[in-house]
Write a structure and sequence with these properties.
Blueprint (H helix, E strand, L loop, with lengths): L1 H27 L2 H45 L42
Protein name: Secreted protein
Organism: Streptomyces griseicoloratus
Length: about 120
């Protein structure tokens, strides 16, 4: 009698366990739950991708700054220049001022093409 009760109880427990597992799996396979799962996985993947892209961009920026420093050193652009060797700054006029004394020629007269000669 105890054997039958033991095996009956074991069978009932196995049936309840299997039914619970199957019902959980069926709930996971409903369209709503599949959509939620897919959305969550897509958000996680997007976050990981964004983190990698940001990390990559930071690495590129750091390496670019390092390479610019190396090129500046190789070309002598980063070397300090003494103040007494700097040339005076030049100023260029965007438009020439013909009334400036530098451009006025005292020996010639202005030409007016409307005058008769």
């Amino acid at each position: 009698m105890f054997r039958r009760t033991f095996w009956f109880t074991t069978g009932v427990a196995a049936g309840v366990w299997a039914t619970t597992k199957v019902n959980r799996k069926l709930k996971q396979l409903t369209p709503e739950n599949l959509a939620v799962t897919a959305t969550n996985k897509a958000i996680e993947a997007g976050g990981r991708l964004k983190d990698r892209a940001v990390g990559f961009a930071l690495d590129v920026r750091d390496n670019m700054a390092q390479r610019e420093a190396e090129l500046g050193d190789a070309l002598g652009l980063n070397a300090p220049v003494p103040d007494h060797e700097l040339p005076a700054p030049r100023r260029h006029a965007a438009i020439e001022n013909r009334n400036d004394p530098m451009y006025v020629d005292r020996t010639t007269y202005s030409y007016n093409r409307n005058e008769d000669h």
